[in-house]
Each structure stands twice: as C-alpha cells, then as structure tokens.
From TrEMBL:
<protein>
    <submittedName>
        <fullName>DUF427-domain-containing protein</fullName>
    </submittedName>
</protein>
<dbReference type="Pfam" id="PF04248">
    <property type="entry name" value="NTP_transf_9"/>
</dbReference>
<dbReference type="InterPro" id="IPR007361">
    <property type="entry name" value="DUF427"/>
</dbReference>
<feature type="domain" description="DUF427">
    <location>
        <begin position="159"/>
        <end position="251"/>
    </location>
</feature>
<dbReference type="InterPro" id="IPR038694">
    <property type="entry name" value="DUF427_sf"/>
</dbReference>
Length: 278
C-alpha cells in the first residue's frame, strides 16, 4: 500500500540530551543488539546519505529497537564532528549530518574506545530523516521489533464505552487488535459511535505497525478528554481490517466487553504507552 511522504523534522537544538544516552551505551552497551539482512537506506534533504546491508538493531531499552548504521556506510562528507562534544576516552562523539544547507545534530558516532556492541556504529534520531527498509518507507518513532507482531481479529463480542457513566459507543461489529506485550485494543464500527460527543483534536501520530493515526477528543458533561479516540484512515496492509474504525483509549475511558468492565491497565504490566505505540 503506498503512503504519502511526510517531510522529516529537522532538529538542531538540545543536543545535550543525547550525551547521557551516549555515555551509557558507550560504557555499558545496549540491552541487546542484532544484525538484520534488510537493506536499510536513509534519505535526508532529498539525497541518500546511506544505503547498507550492514544495519544493526539496537535496543537502547527494553521497549523497542532502533537501527544503527556502520559509520563507513555513510556517504563521504555528510557527517561532521561537533567540536567539544565527546571523543577521547568517552567512546563517542556527537556529529552533524549535513546535506547542502540542511543539517541535524541529533547524531551519535561511537568510536573505537566504546564497548564492542556499538563500536563503529552511528545513531541518527529516527524523526530527523526518512528511513526505508528495502523499498518501504518506515513510519513511526522506531522500526518494527522483529520479535513482536500484531493480529487483527473480527469479533462479535459487544464492546461498550462509557465516560462518566454515559455510553458514548456500543458495538458488536468490532475488530480486536492484539500486539505483543501490549493490551488489546478494540476498533469499533464507526456507525455505532455517538458522534455528538466527539470533536477533531488535530493530533496525528505514526505507528510502524499500523500507519498514521488521527485523533478525536471526547466531551461528556462538560469534561473533555483530549485524544481519547484514534483511527487509521489508510492503515498498513497488515492492519487493513481496522481501516475507518474508531478505537477508544482504554486508559482514558471505561471499557466493557460483554458487560464485564475491563481490568485496570496496571494488570497488563505495561509501564507506559506513548503515541506511536497505539
């Protein structure tokens, strides 16, 4: 399924926030790393800055991986060291990725004195460039985790959504979405939602598994819940069943499945949920 190409964000400030991460990884290494046979390419300012079969999955934490790229796979001249930001015994330095008059300083280069797991690799902030795996443009704040999957199943179980005791949606024409390590999400038939309670929020997020999501606010009895509902107009092929359906943020509303109120989110052992993981 084709996707529109969205311009990358160019981040050139707050590079100090990268230093603690670089220090931790250069000395202690990541949670895990793993090579991938995928062809990974990076597009910046309309030009390819790397094209490699040597990309590495690096888990900086337990939640999801990033792609790290060998430094020698970058096009000559596009990486510049940011003076005074690392090197020596630090095991890393901060760099600037530059093409023409566009640049980003959200780049870490791990040098020969870092631990072996990241030695010679480059971390480019995912949101600053356009990433491609083979010929597919990657969406979301990180690549897909090779050990996680999603499953979408049609379900006639009755799902009821309440806010402050008021029913805002109730449907038995649903798609249940199951994603590894995350709680189930219930995508309801749009015709079974009481639209008088909804208003567009303007928020957009990207998920590597499902695509671009658009959000609604919910307002009941004068109380407004921001970004309480999302939907995918053009989801990825693996999530095609949820197209045009509405999903209520379980953590913000009361969800009943076949008359049984859903358990507390804490029981799903999920430390946090951020937009882009929904």
């Amino acid at each position: 399924m084709p996707f529109p190409v969205f311009p990358s964000k160019i981040l050139t400030s707050n590079i100090s926030s990268l230093i603690p991460l670089a220090q931790k990884l250069s000395k202690n290494g990541p949670v895990k790393r793993e090579s991938t046979p995928r062809r990974i390419r990076g597009l910046f300012a309309g030009e390819w800055v790397f094209d490699t079969l040597g990309a590495v999955y690096v888990w900086e934490d337990v939640y999801y991986p990033y792609f790290y790229i060998p430094v020698n796979e970058f096009r000559e001249g596009v990486l510049e060291k940011v003076e005074g930001k690392g090197e020596g015994e630090d095991g890393f330095y901060l760099a600037r990725l530059r093409v023409g008059d566009r640049s980003t300083e959200r780049v870490i280069v791990f040098s020969s004195t870092s631990v072996e797991a990241v030695r010679g690799l480059v971390r480019v902030e995912h949101s600053t460039i356009d990433w491609f795996a083979e010929d597919e443009k990657l969406l979301g704040p990180h690549p897909k985790d090779p050990y996680k999957r999603i499953e979408t199943l049609p379900s006639s179980r009755r799902v009821r959504i309440e806010v402050a005791g008021v029913v805002v949606a109730e449907s038995s024409q649903n798609v249940f979405l199951y994603e590894t390590m995350l709680r189930p999400r219930y995508y309801l038939n749009a015709g079974d939602v009481k639209w008088e309670f909804l208003s567009e929020s303007g928020t957009i997020s990207y998920c590597p598994y499902k695509g671009m999501a658009t959000y609604y606010n919910v307002k009941v009895k004068g109380r407004e819940i921001k970004d309480a509902v999302w939907y995918y107009r053009y989801p990825t092929s693996e999530s095609a069943l949820v197209a045009g359906r509405l999903c209520f943020y379980n953590e913000k509303v009361d969800v009943f499945v076949d008359g049984v109120r859903e358990e507390s989110p804490r029981l799903f052992n999920i430390p946090f949920v951020q937009k882009g993981m929904l």
